[in-house]
Specification:
With about 250 residues, this protein is of the alpha/beta class. Helix content is about 40%, strand content about 20%. The protein has one domain (about 55-250): Rossmann fold (3-Layer(aba) Sandwich), CATH 3.40.50. A 6-stranded mixed beta sheet has the order 3-5-4-6-7-8, sandwiched between helices. Strands 1-2 form a two-stranded antiparallel sheet.
């Protein structure tokens, strides 16, 4: 039986709360829902990134690269290979090298489904703010079988001062298609997670596209102004958003 007291609370969370039981076991309906969510998460992990035509319409040249992980199975078993560019990536990126301010990398990560669904809408909301902010943008790079740190190698090859990696996050049982964004100033071979800032759970049922774009633009501008990222850069975007425009622009 399910306690009816839980019913109104379910409107505020996607978490599985107050599940009914039959003896010591879950009831049939919540058990089947759990198995379905688990299957969707597994499918998202193994899903290969397909074509994303919407990225081509954003007004930036698009370059596609791969990591050293030859296939999805290798990518999952060898995270180190997912952090390194394969031999063909250097020649593909080299013609686009220059004095860029920001390299944007769209990487499949652990949920290519998230990239296919959310990367283009996030960038459509973000790019006007970056252009208005004077960012010199490198070509958009789509990276397959890629981990976050692959963005460091891409930015260094392109000569970019900073990297923004949009990547599919590890699927959960309530969201198999959550997109994450990692920001890194002066990415180098020894860059660690402490040197990055992360904005996570980007999707319509999490952090919406416009909210994510505002937060990313704010962090990128602050990152450039202070010349650093990671633990030294604090996210005060929510406070800034509450200020009047006349004060926010100071």
């Amino acid at each position: 039986m399910t306690d009816p007291a839980w019913t109104p609370l379910r409107a505020f969370t996607a978490a599985r709360i107050g599940l009914g039981r039959s003896g010591a076991s879950l009831g049939t309906a919540p058990l089947l829902e759990f198995r379905l969510a688990h299957a969707r998460a597994r499918d998202a992990v193994h899903h290969d990134l397909g074509a994303v035509p919407a990225l081509e319409a954003l007004g930036l040249p698009v370059v596609t690269v791969r990591s050293r992980a030859a296939d999805r199975r290798t990518f999952l078993l060898r995270p180190d290979l997912g952090r390194a560019l394969d031999d063909d990536a250097g020649p593909a990126l080299a013609p686009h090298a220059g004095a860029h301010g920001l390299a944007v990398v769209v990487a499949d990560g652990l949920s290519a489904l998230a990239v296919e669904r959310h990367a283009a809408p996030v960038l459509a909301a973000l790019l006007p703010a970056l252009r208005a902010g004077g960012w010199a943008l490198a070509p958009l790079v789509v990276a397959r079988q890629a981990r976050v740190a692959l963005g460091d190698a891409v930015a260094r090859t392109l000569g970019a001062a900073a990297a923004l990696v949009l990547i599919g996050e590890r699927p959960g049982l309530s969201a198999p298609d959550s997109l994450g964004a990692y920001l890194t100033w002066a990415p180098a071979a020894g860059t660690t997670d402490a040197d990055r800032n992360c904005v996570s759970n980007i999707r319509p049922d999490g952090l919406g596209y416009q909210e994510a774009a505002w937060k990313l633009a704010f962090l990128l501008d602050r990152m450039r102004a202070m010349g650093g990222s990671g633990v030294q850069l604090k996210d005060e975007s929510d406070r800034a958003a509450a200020l009047p425009d006349s004060v926010r622009q100071l």
